[in-house]
Design a protein that fits this description.
Layout (H helix, E strand, L loop, with lengths): L2 H12 L6 H12 L7 H11 L5 H13 L3 E5 L5 E5 L9 E5 L5 E4 L5 H11 L9 E4 L2 H11 L4
Parallel strand pairs: 3-5
Antiparallel strand pairs: 1-2, 3-4
Helix pairs in contact: 2-3, 3-4
Length: 155
């Protein structure tokens, strides 16, 4: 068993939850797609492909439990869907997301770029930030290159 999966199983057991076969399947799907930001429905389609006996409600209940235990994080990328991704305990804060307005691509920014802002909040307002989420909207490199090609005059 890989280290991340083992950590998650330990956390579940510490909170009194068993590693059921359904929970294992949902967890495996999240681990296999940890570079994606999945909706419950997308996760269900992944799970259903190999385990058609598992229902949407089971996937939903398990993802809610994993979210409550801070194993997965709930994301709102302003596209009308609630998405989930595996939490990264190595990060002091949640990472940031760059969202392309044209293709919908989501790029994760792992650097914590808000440290000086948080320090300023503490110094100016006495407000201690314990977490934050940041979303930046714009156009990804690939879409910029495509648009550049479209805008070039043809001869």
């Amino acid at each position: 068993m890989d280290a991340k999966k083992e950590q998650i199983c330990i956390r579940l057991k510490e909170h009194g939850y068993k590693i059921t076969s359904q929970r294992k399947v949902v967890l495996d799907a999240m681990l296999a797609n940890q570079d994606k930001h999945l909706t419950v429905e997308e996760l269900y389609q992944i799970v259903k492909a190999e385990h058609p006996e598992i229902g949407l409600a089971t996937v939903y209940r398990n993802i809610q439990l994993l979210n409550e235990l801070k194993i997965v994080e709930k994301l709102n990328l302003d596209d009308g869907y609630i998405r989930y991704e595996l939490a990264n305990e190595d990060e002091g804060h949640r990472h940031h997301h760059l969202i392309c307005d044209q293709c919908g691509k989501v790029i994760e920014v792992t650097e914590d770029l808000m440290g000086s802002i948080e320090k300023s909040f503490l110094e100016s307002y006495g407000f201690l930030v314990h977490d934050h989420q940041a979303k930046f909207f714009g156009v990804c490199k690939e879409c910029q290159e495509k648009n550049e090609e479209i805008l070039k005059p043809t001869r």
